[in-house]
Write a structure and sequence with these properties.
Number of strands: 12
Largest sheet: 5 strands, parallel
Bound molecules: calcium ion
Strand content: 15-25%
Distance between the termini: 26 Å
Strand order of the largest sheet: 2-1-3-4-5
Protein backbone atom coordinates (compact mmCIF):
# COMPACT_ATOMS: atom_id res chain seq x y z
CA UNK A 1 0.00 0.00 0.00
CA UNK A 2 2.97 2.29 0.60
CA UNK A 3 3.28 3.31 -3.02
CA UNK A 4 -0.35 4.44 -3.17
CA UNK A 5 0.25 7.09 -0.58
CA UNK A 6 0.41 10.75 -1.49
CA UNK A 7 3.83 12.20 -0.84
CA UNK A 8 3.67 15.54 0.98
CA UNK A 9 6.53 17.90 1.68
CA UNK A 10 6.48 20.13 4.76
CA UNK A 11 8.80 23.15 4.54
CA UNK A 12 8.80 24.74 7.97
CA UNK A 13 11.69 25.94 10.13
CA UNK A 14 9.92 25.73 13.48
CA UNK A 15 10.67 22.24 14.69
CA UNK A 16 7.56 21.95 16.87
CA UNK A 17 5.22 22.73 14.03
CA UNK A 18 7.19 20.57 11.58
CA UNK A 19 7.06 17.56 13.90
CA UNK A 20 3.40 18.09 14.71
CA UNK A 21 2.43 18.46 11.06
CA UNK A 22 4.43 15.42 9.99
CA UNK A 23 2.84 13.29 12.71
CA UNK A 24 -0.65 14.50 11.85
CA UNK A 25 -0.21 13.85 8.14
CA UNK A 26 1.41 10.45 8.65
CA UNK A 27 -1.41 9.44 10.98
CA UNK A 28 -3.81 10.28 8.16
CA UNK A 29 -2.15 8.06 5.59
CA UNK A 30 0.24 10.42 3.87
CA UNK A 31 3.93 9.88 3.29
CA UNK A 32 5.76 12.92 4.64
CA UNK A 33 9.06 14.58 3.76
CA UNK A 34 10.20 17.50 5.87
CA UNK A 35 12.61 20.39 5.36
CA UNK A 36 13.67 23.12 7.79
CA UNK A 37 15.04 25.51 5.18
CA UNK A 38 14.06 26.80 1.76
CA UNK A 39 17.20 25.34 0.21
CA UNK A 40 16.44 21.88 1.58
CA UNK A 41 12.85 22.29 0.42
CA UNK A 42 13.99 23.05 -3.14
CA UNK A 43 16.29 20.04 -3.08
CA UNK A 44 13.53 17.67 -1.92
CA UNK A 45 11.10 19.04 -4.52
CA UNK A 46 13.59 18.30 -7.30
CA UNK A 47 14.65 14.91 -5.98
CA UNK A 48 11.33 13.54 -4.68
CA UNK A 49 8.59 15.26 -6.73
CA UNK A 50 6.08 15.55 -3.87
CA UNK A 51 2.33 15.58 -4.65
CA UNK A 52 1.79 18.63 -2.47
CA UNK A 53 3.91 21.16 -0.58
CA UNK A 54 3.01 22.80 2.73
CA UNK A 55 5.10 25.94 2.72
CA UNK A 56 5.93 28.25 5.60
CA UNK A 57 6.52 31.82 4.43
CA UNK A 58 9.01 32.85 7.12
CA UNK A 59 12.04 30.66 6.47
CA UNK A 60 15.54 31.35 7.81
CA UNK A 61 17.34 31.33 4.46
CA UNK A 62 14.71 32.76 2.11
CA UNK A 63 11.19 34.09 1.93
CA UNK A 64 8.72 31.28 1.28
CA UNK A 65 7.29 33.44 -1.51
CA UNK A 66 10.65 33.20 -3.26
CA UNK A 67 10.50 29.41 -3.18
CA UNK A 68 6.96 29.55 -4.53
CA UNK A 69 8.06 31.89 -7.32
CA UNK A 70 10.89 29.52 -8.31
CA UNK A 71 8.53 26.56 -8.25
CA UNK A 72 5.98 28.26 -10.51
CA UNK A 73 8.68 29.67 -12.82
CA UNK A 74 9.67 26.08 -13.53
CA UNK A 75 6.04 25.45 -14.43
CA UNK A 76 5.65 22.89 -11.71
CA UNK A 77 1.96 22.33 -11.03
CA UNK A 78 2.57 20.79 -7.62
CA UNK A 79 -0.15 22.18 -5.33
CA UNK A 80 1.18 24.47 -2.63
CA UNK A 81 -0.57 25.37 0.62
CA UNK A 82 1.02 28.32 2.34
CA UNK A 83 1.36 28.24 6.13
CA UNK A 84 1.18 31.81 7.24
CA UNK A 85 1.74 33.07 10.75
CA UNK A 86 1.21 36.54 9.48
CA UNK A 87 -2.11 38.26 9.46
CA UNK A 88 -1.01 40.34 6.50
CA UNK A 89 -3.76 39.92 3.90
CA UNK A 90 -1.63 41.36 1.13
CA UNK A 91 0.88 38.60 1.61
CA UNK A 92 -1.76 35.91 1.34
CA UNK A 93 -3.07 37.56 -1.84
CA UNK A 94 0.49 37.70 -3.23
CA UNK A 95 0.98 34.01 -2.44
CA UNK A 96 -2.32 33.05 -4.10
CA UNK A 97 -1.65 35.21 -7.13
CA UNK A 98 1.83 33.66 -7.43
CA UNK A 99 0.09 30.31 -7.77
CA UNK A 100 -0.32 28.99 -4.24
CA UNK A 101 -3.46 26.84 -4.10
CA UNK A 102 -4.51 27.86 -0.64
CA UNK A 103 -3.29 29.11 2.69
CA UNK A 104 -3.92 28.41 6.34
CA UNK A 105 -3.17 30.89 9.08
CA UNK A 106 -1.25 29.61 12.10
CA UNK A 107 -2.38 28.44 14.57
CA UNK A 108 -4.67 26.15 12.58
CA UNK A 109 -6.81 23.22 13.60
CA UNK A 110 -5.94 19.74 12.30
CA UNK A 111 -9.38 19.18 10.76
CA UNK A 112 -9.10 22.42 8.81
CA UNK A 113 -5.60 21.61 7.60
CA UNK A 114 -6.53 18.09 6.50
CA UNK A 115 -9.57 19.42 4.64
CA UNK A 116 -7.41 21.93 2.77
CA UNK A 117 -4.90 19.20 1.86
CA UNK A 118 -7.65 16.93 0.51
CA UNK A 119 -9.16 19.80 -1.50
CA UNK A 120 -5.83 20.82 -3.03
CA UNK A 121 -5.03 17.23 -4.03
CA UNK A 122 -8.50 16.70 -5.46
CA UNK A 123 -8.62 19.98 -7.39
CA UNK A 124 -5.30 19.20 -8.99
CA UNK A 125 -6.50 15.77 -10.06
CA UNK A 126 -9.67 17.30 -11.51
CA UNK A 127 -8.00 20.05 -13.48
CA UNK A 128 -5.40 17.63 -14.76
CA UNK A 129 -7.76 14.89 -15.89
CA UNK A 130 -11.39 15.87 -16.01
CA UNK A 131 -12.14 19.53 -16.18
CA UNK A 132 -15.80 20.34 -15.80
CA UNK A 133 -18.05 17.60 -17.02
CA UNK A 134 -20.80 18.62 -19.45
CA UNK A 135 -24.29 18.30 -18.08
CA UNK A 136 -22.89 18.51 -14.61
CA UNK A 137 -24.69 19.77 -11.58
CA UNK A 138 -23.21 21.11 -8.41
CA UNK A 139 -24.91 20.35 -5.09
CA UNK A 140 -24.13 22.18 -1.88
CA UNK A 141 -26.57 21.69 0.99
CA UNK A 142 -29.94 22.66 -0.52
CA UNK A 143 -28.45 24.68 -3.39
CA UNK A 144 -28.12 23.22 -6.88
CA UNK A 145 -26.24 24.78 -9.80
CA UNK A 146 -27.24 23.44 -13.20
CA UNK A 147 -24.33 24.35 -15.48
CA UNK A 148 -26.13 23.59 -18.75
CA UNK A 149 -29.26 25.56 -17.92
CA UNK A 150 -27.14 28.22 -16.14
CA UNK A 151 -29.60 28.08 -13.26
CA UNK A 152 -29.19 28.19 -9.53
CA UNK A 153 -31.94 26.91 -7.28
CA UNK A 154 -32.38 26.56 -3.57
CA UNK A 155 -34.82 23.94 -2.26
CA UNK A 156 -36.17 23.66 -5.81
CA UNK A 157 -36.86 27.39 -6.14
CA UNK A 158 -34.95 29.24 -8.86
CA UNK A 159 -32.73 32.06 -7.62
CA UNK A 160 -32.98 34.94 -10.06
CA UNK A 161 -29.40 35.92 -10.82
CA UNK A 162 -28.09 38.28 -13.49
CA UNK A 163 -25.65 36.83 -16.05
CA UNK A 164 -22.71 38.30 -14.16
CA UNK A 165 -23.95 37.05 -10.80
CA UNK A 166 -24.42 33.57 -12.27
CA UNK A 167 -20.91 33.65 -13.76
CA UNK A 168 -19.42 34.53 -10.38
CA UNK A 169 -21.34 31.78 -8.57
CA UNK A 170 -20.42 29.19 -11.22
CA UNK A 171 -16.77 30.25 -11.15
CA UNK A 172 -16.60 29.93 -7.34
CA UNK A 173 -18.32 26.53 -7.46
CA UNK A 174 -15.81 25.23 -10.00
CA UNK A 175 -13.10 26.09 -7.48
CA UNK A 176 -15.09 25.13 -4.39
CA UNK A 177 -13.15 24.68 -1.19
CA UNK A 178 -10.48 27.03 -2.45
CA UNK A 179 -10.23 30.73 -1.72
CA UNK A 180 -10.24 32.78 -4.92
CA UNK A 181 -8.64 36.22 -4.78
CA UNK A 182 -10.46 39.28 -6.10
CA UNK A 183 -8.15 39.42 -9.11
CA UNK A 184 -8.59 35.69 -9.87
CA UNK A 185 -12.40 36.09 -9.85
CA UNK A 186 -12.19 39.23 -11.98
CA UNK A 187 -9.96 37.47 -14.52
CA UNK A 188 -12.27 34.44 -14.51
CA UNK A 189 -15.48 36.41 -14.94
CA UNK A 190 -14.61 39.57 -16.86
CA UNK A 191 -11.32 38.43 -18.36
CA UNK A 192 -9.47 41.62 -17.57
CA UNK A 193 -9.22 44.00 -14.64
CA UNK A 194 -9.93 47.73 -14.81
CA UNK A 195 -10.22 50.55 -12.31
CA UNK A 196 -13.75 49.65 -11.22
CA UNK A 197 -13.36 45.86 -11.13
CA UNK A 198 -13.02 45.27 -7.41
CA UNK A 199 -15.90 47.60 -6.60
CA UNK A 200 -18.05 45.93 -9.27
CA UNK A 201 -17.20 42.49 -7.87
CA UNK A 202 -18.10 43.57 -4.34
CA UNK A 203 -21.43 45.01 -5.45
CA UNK A 204 -22.25 41.80 -7.32
CA UNK A 205 -21.20 39.69 -4.35
CA UNK A 206 -23.41 41.67 -1.99
CA UNK A 207 -26.37 40.99 -4.30
CA UNK A 208 -25.49 37.32 -4.66
CA UNK A 209 -25.24 36.82 -0.92
CA UNK A 210 -28.58 38.57 -0.44
CA UNK A 211 -30.26 36.44 -3.12
CA UNK A 212 -28.79 33.18 -1.81
CA UNK A 213 -30.10 34.17 1.56
CA UNK A 214 -28.54 34.32 4.97
CA UNK A 215 -29.61 31.30 6.97
CA UNK A 216 -29.41 31.89 10.68
CA UNK A 217 -27.41 29.22 12.46
CA UNK A 218 -26.14 27.80 9.17
CA UNK A 219 -22.98 28.42 7.23
CA UNK A 220 -23.20 30.56 4.11
CA UNK A 221 -22.60 28.91 0.75
CA UNK A 222 -19.97 31.53 0.05
CA UNK A 223 -17.45 32.53 2.70
CA UNK A 224 -16.05 36.05 2.65
CA UNK A 225 -12.30 35.79 3.30
CA UNK A 226 -11.80 39.35 4.45
CA UNK A 227 -9.24 41.31 2.46
CA UNK A 228 -8.36 38.26 0.34
CA UNK A 229 -11.33 37.01 -1.68
CA UNK A 230 -14.21 34.54 -1.57
CA UNK A 231 -14.50 30.79 -1.09
CA UNK A 232 -17.46 28.60 -1.91
CA UNK A 233 -17.73 25.82 0.63
CA UNK A 234 -16.99 22.35 -0.63
CA UNK A 235 -19.86 19.85 -0.67
CA UNK A 236 -19.46 17.01 1.78
CA UNK A 237 -18.83 13.59 0.22
CA UNK A 238 -22.43 12.40 0.38
CA UNK A 239 -23.50 15.29 -1.83
CA UNK A 240 -21.05 14.52 -4.62
CA1 LIG B 1 8.84 30.20 10.13
Amino acid sequence: MTNNKYKLLVVEDEENIRTLLSALLEANGYQVLAAGTGAMGKLLITSHRPDLVLLDLGLPDMDGLELLRTLRAEETLTPVIVLSARTDEREKVTALDLGANDYVTKPFGSAELLARVRTALRNTRHSAQEGRLPGGKFHLDDMVIDYDARRVSIRGQEVRLTQTEYNIVAFLSEHCGKVMTYSAIIRGVWGYPDAGSVKRLQVNMANIRKKLGARPGEESYIVNELGVGYRMREPSHEEK
